[in-house]
User: Which sequence fits this backbone?
């Protein structure tokens, strides 16, 4: 989101943000204070409508000349950037018309004119009045403004009355106070405003309301899913060795040996992952960064090496709280208990659902261990509990594999890595790398530092927070993907290669693993707390945002995701 409020080192609040504050203070806080934004069909359509007035054209007569005489030629200017030091606001006005010494700001809106006495929405009237304040503060004579509603094809006049001026100044002061308070306002309760809000998936109004202690009972059926169940864009993986990824107009083009092998629109890509010897041109990286599409780098064997992103998220407040909580033993242990409990419970659920043999003893032990995790006194104790649970779980992992000719070929005794010594461990290592990558990307998009965790301790190059939040999803996404690949006979022993004491995955094998992983990430699942169906990729984002709301004090504790 472009910031047009910064001039000469001073920070002004853009008038469009005053509009947001008048509409919903929480929306203002998310977009301006947290600097978080997500496009929707409405926002994209709104930009299309603004195209004609987004180009700077025309000039305004100097304000001093308006006091010499009343005879002036009719003039107009578009995309006029102006600010008011007195009120601490700025605006890029769509259109300013000048007639006989008086100026009239005109604001373009994609919506329809409301069916009320004024014919304008309250927040739009505040916005046009704030523009009038800016023009007056710069010496111009302004008595009225106009709003063009494209949906109704009407221009509605707004008189700058004393009452509207007072209400607008009050809104400006309210926005400033909220900005400096660094405390997010509560969400609107069951408001129709939320239904088409572009930041509903960031705000989580119904979810946050239900998680507040006083509202926890009896509201589950009332939670609305205010955003699509799946993302509109998809990850792109390139592992063709020697390939070059470049930019071709509005598309990424993949070439091999000088020939084009694929073209994908930037609009369809959520992230790019490259494996081994794959090159990316500078022009492609520039465009990906501009569009906030991250690039993840893996070794040929699937080890997650690093990531390229555009300018990092500007939510300094959230990161400051994250650093503070990570150094607070009480807060760190409180969320770490839930992380470990969630992992063990989901491991137990996967084993209970998929085991081909009776495993009552193992299930009982895992249940005992996740209950112990709830009362662990230290991170060291939690590590011991998690280690015991992992030993029990992986000792029964083969019980979830169908007994056929795959059983011997896909031997598995325990979890091992660096290097993985069998096909199952090779798949698990690759899948955990992919999951780490997705958690890292999601955390960056929310505003976190993925390298500062609560349970996993900081270590050079280790995305500790991504590993924290990955724990509860390991069995549900990565482990279940391995089980599906083997039980459905979608992968063969020929998809693996032995390298000394280790086992690697061939290029064709990686394609199968990645395809099944993305299928799992895109599958719909009913959220146990909120009752609606969304994809695992969406659930991961929701969980990351719940951590943010816990750090902000909106909810008493982080709510782990445990499938039923």
Assistant:
């Amino acid at each position: 989101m472009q910031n047009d409020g910064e001039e000469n080192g001073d920070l002004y609040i853009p008038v469009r943000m005053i509009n947001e504050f008048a509409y919903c203070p929480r929306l203002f806080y998310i977009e301006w204070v947290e600097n978080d934004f997500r496009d929707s069909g409405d926002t994209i359509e709104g930009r299309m409508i603004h195209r004609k007035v987004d180009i700077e054209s025309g000039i305004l007569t100097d304000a001093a000349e308006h006091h010499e005489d009343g005879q002036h030629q009719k003039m107009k200017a578009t995309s006029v950037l102006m600010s008011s030091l007195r009120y601490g606001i700025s605006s890029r006005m769509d259109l300013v018309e000048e007639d006989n010494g008086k100026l009239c700001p005109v604001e373009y809106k994609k919506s329809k004119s409301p069916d009320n006495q004024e014919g304008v929405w309250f927040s739009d009237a505040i916005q046009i009045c704030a523009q009038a304040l800016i023009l007056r503060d710069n010496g111009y004579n302004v008595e009225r403004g106009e709003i063009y509603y494209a949906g109704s094809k009407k221009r509605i006049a707004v008189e700058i009355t004393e009452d509207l001026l007072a209400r607008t100044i009050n809104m400006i002061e309210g926005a400033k106070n909220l900005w400096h308070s660094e405390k997010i306002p509560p969400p609107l309760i069951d408001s129709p405003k939320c239904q088409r809000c572009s930041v509903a998936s960031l705000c989580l109004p119904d979810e946050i309301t239900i998680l507040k202690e006083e509202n926890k009972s009896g509201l589950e059926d009332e939670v609305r899913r205010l955003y699509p169940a799946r993302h509109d864009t998809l990850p792109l993986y390139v592992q063709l060795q020697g390939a070059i990824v470049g930019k071709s107009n509005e598309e990424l083009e993949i070439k091999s040996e000088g020939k084009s092998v694929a073209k994908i629109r930037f609009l369809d890509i959520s992230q790019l992952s490259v494996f081994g010897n794959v090159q990316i041109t500078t022009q492609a990286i520039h465009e990906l960064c501009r569009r906030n599409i991250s690039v993840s780098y893996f070794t040929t064997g699937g080890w997650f090496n690093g990531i390229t992103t555009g300018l990092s998220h500007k939510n300094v407040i959230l990161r400051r709280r994250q650093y503070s909580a990570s150094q607070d033993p009480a807060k760190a242990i409180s969320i770490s208990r839930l992380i470990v409990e969630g992992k063990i419970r989901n491991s137990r659920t996967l084993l209970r659902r998929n085991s081909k043999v009776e495993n009552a003893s193992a299930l009982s032990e895992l249940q005992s261990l996740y209950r112990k995790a709830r009362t662990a006194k230290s991170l060291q104790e939690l590590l011991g509990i998690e280690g015991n649970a992992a030993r029990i779980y992986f000792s029964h992992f083969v019980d979830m594999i169908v007994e056929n000719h795959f059983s011997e070929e896909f031997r598995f005794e325990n979890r091992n890595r660096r290097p993985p010594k069998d096909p199952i461990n090779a798949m698990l290592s690759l899948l955990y790398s992919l999951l780490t990558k997705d958690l890292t990307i999601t955390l960056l998009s929310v505003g976190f530092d993925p390298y500062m965790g609560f349970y996993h301790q900081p270590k050079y190059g280790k995305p500790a927070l991504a590993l924290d939040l990955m724990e509860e999803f390991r069995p549900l996404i990565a482990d279940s993907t391995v089980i599906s690949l083997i039980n459905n006979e979608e992968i063969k022993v020929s998809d693996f290669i032995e390298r000394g004491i280790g086992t690697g995955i061939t290029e064709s094998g990686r394609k199968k693993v990645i395809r099944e992983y993305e299928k799992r990430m895109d599958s719909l699942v009913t959220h146990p707390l909120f009752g609606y169906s969304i994809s695992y990729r969406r659930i991961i984002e929701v969980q990351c945002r719940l951590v943010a709301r816990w750090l902000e004090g909106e909810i008493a504790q982080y709510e782990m995701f445990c499938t039923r």
